[in-house]
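This week, think about what follows.
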Amino acid sequence: MDKKDTQIDTQETVISIKDLKKSFGPLNVLNGVNLEIKKGENVAVLGRSGTGKSVLIKIISGLLKPDSGLVKVFGQEVDKISEKELQELRLKIGFSFQNSALYDSMSVRENLKFPLVRNKRDLNDKEVNEAIESVLNDVGLPQTINQMPSELSGGQKKRIGIARTLILKPEIMLYDEPTSGLDPITCIELNNLILKVQKEYRTSSIIITHDLTCAKITGNKVAILNEGKFLKIGGFEEVFSSHDTYIKTFYDYNFTENNKIYER
């Protein structure tokens, strides 16, 4: 990985959200969300389906506009900046989609090359190939370079999807259900990769997940979203020591006798 030697100012706020609201017709999805993410920090956002988790990260990346409230990324109000400024901002934001979003007709090499040459036109062929090989090594899959997506496992597809995002060296990562549909061992590998990316790429991240093990391992903080608002934000133990009925039910659903939580 291309490690950065500069010290991180962990007090710097990279994402600031205040009283964010978003509705779709009569459905209030976000109803006064407040959140701050510091540089180098991972925040796991937890909640049931339909609670607005994915809507939140789409607003952060400018894919959706808020109805009201303030959303700042690197000090810029996302819904107020020009289209050119938004495109420049998005180059600093990596989006890891739930379904990996790889192009089926392209090899792994071509999938990684596509965003690189589209956004960094000054690179020569040698530099492009070195970047592809480097990022594949970072996600532990150098052997897949000439494979097609159809030849990859679910976990490999997710890691290649992350590699395709990392090739542009983003400062923020937005993960949408990174462990969804994966077996327990592959989940552990994905969780470890998220931590590796945080440490070596110096990223700040939002991790959207239903998976409490993922949240505990990868998140410096967790935030519980319910009925359009965060019920509680803090460390894992702090949040889940709450007597709130929703939080306790969410925890109990995840951790039955057949589930095990893995320490970070």
